[in-house]
Write a structure and sequence with these properties.
This protein is an alpha/beta fold. The chain is built from nine helices and twelve strands. α1 runs parallel beside α2 and α3 packs across α4 (141-153). Mean pLDDT is 75; it is low at 1-39 and 53-63.
Length: 302
């Protein structure tokens, strides 16, 4: 769950099959600089929801945490507390999202300061136990320079740096190749890309699979959620004024069967991370995310 100013919540999950038992890992994303009391309340609220017997799709559950770092990024005491608070609740921190600062800046002093802030974030992420660090970079020389600087400074760290895609998937694929490091890969978000017709390729049955397969072993992380376009998909009674993405699974038009076929094609072994907003309620989204494996199997039995 990602919390922005205490208002916007997001859900994260991974699942796998083991002896016909569906194991769900539900997680939360929170800013590392949340006040101690607020963070305890948010984590406690999630655990309360997860313990609700009405969420019947879950047969065995553990919890995972992804942090969105925002301000006060080098507050080591705060990050250490966050990790301890998570461990006390049997929550594992697996990844960290960098603050949404842009390194695409012609002012070199500012650009360097932002890169150093990201490097500090990545070191904090490693201390918290995360193995994936997600950044928003662009397809330009500023970002190339930033990526190399981070890789150089973080040499010897076990964390993998990833860039989250924007509109043009081919351009982001080429960017990863340009960096050319096995410590640098892609995070693909199903809601960010657009084809030349302006439509999301992951909503097209004939495009979704190939749109993801192109990344191959470059793919290190995914942000899964559903997507509702306003054209040609009109608003409906449940979502009268929809934004485009971050809906619970099966509430939109993502071609899930094709997406998972692509993940099989490339032998993806990373985390399946849902970034689905609480469009109706937190419990509604948690229930739908938790039910995803069985709902997927029900819809796509072959």
């Amino acid at each position: 769950m990602r919390i922005s100013g205490g208002e916007c919540r997001w859900i994260s999950t991974e699942y796998y099959a083991e002896d016909d038992t569906i194991n769900i890992t539900i997680g939360i994303k929170v800013p590392a600089n949340l006040e101690t009391e607020s963070r305890n309340l948010e984590i406690g609220a999630l655990k309360k929801v997860l313990s609700n017997p009405s969420i019947t799709a879950i047969s065995k559950m553990s919890t995972l945490l992804e942090f969105l770092l925002r301000d006060n990024l080098q507050d080591k005491k705060n990050s250490v507390y966050s990790r301890h608070a998570a461990l006390e609740r049997k929550i594992e921190i697996v990844s960290v999202h960098a603050p949404n600062l842009s390194v695409c800046c012609g002012y070199e002093l500012l650009r360097k300061a932002i890169v150093q802030e990201w490097i500090a974030c990545a070191r904090v992420a490693e201390e918290m136990g995360a193995s994936v660090f997600v950044c928003h970079l662009a397809d330009n020389d500023y970002s190339v320079k930033a990526a190399h600087e981070m890789l150089d400074e973080l040499d010897g760290c076990r964390i993998t740096i990833t860039m989250e895609n924007g509109l043009d998937l081919q351009a982001y694929k080429a960017f990863v190749d340009r960096i050319g490091s096995d410590r640098f890969g892609m995070t693909v978000d199903l809601g960010h890309s657009r084809d030349k017709d302006g439509k999301n390729p992951f909503t097209k049955k004939e495009r979704a699979r190939e749109a993801l397969v192109i990344f191959g072993q470059r793919l290190a992380h995914v942000h899964l959620h559903d997507f509702i376009d306003t054209d040609p998909y009109p608003p409906n009674d449940r979502y009268p004024h929809p934004p485009f993405d971050h809906y619970p699974p099966f509430d939109g038009y993502i071609q899930w069967q094709e997406v998972f076929a692509a993940l099989r094609d490339i032998n993806y072994a990373g985390t399946l991370m849902f970034e689905a907003g609480d469009r109706i309620s937190l419990e509604d989204t948690l229930t739908k995310v938790a039910a995803f494996p069985r709902e997927f199997a029900k819809r796509y039995p072959s």
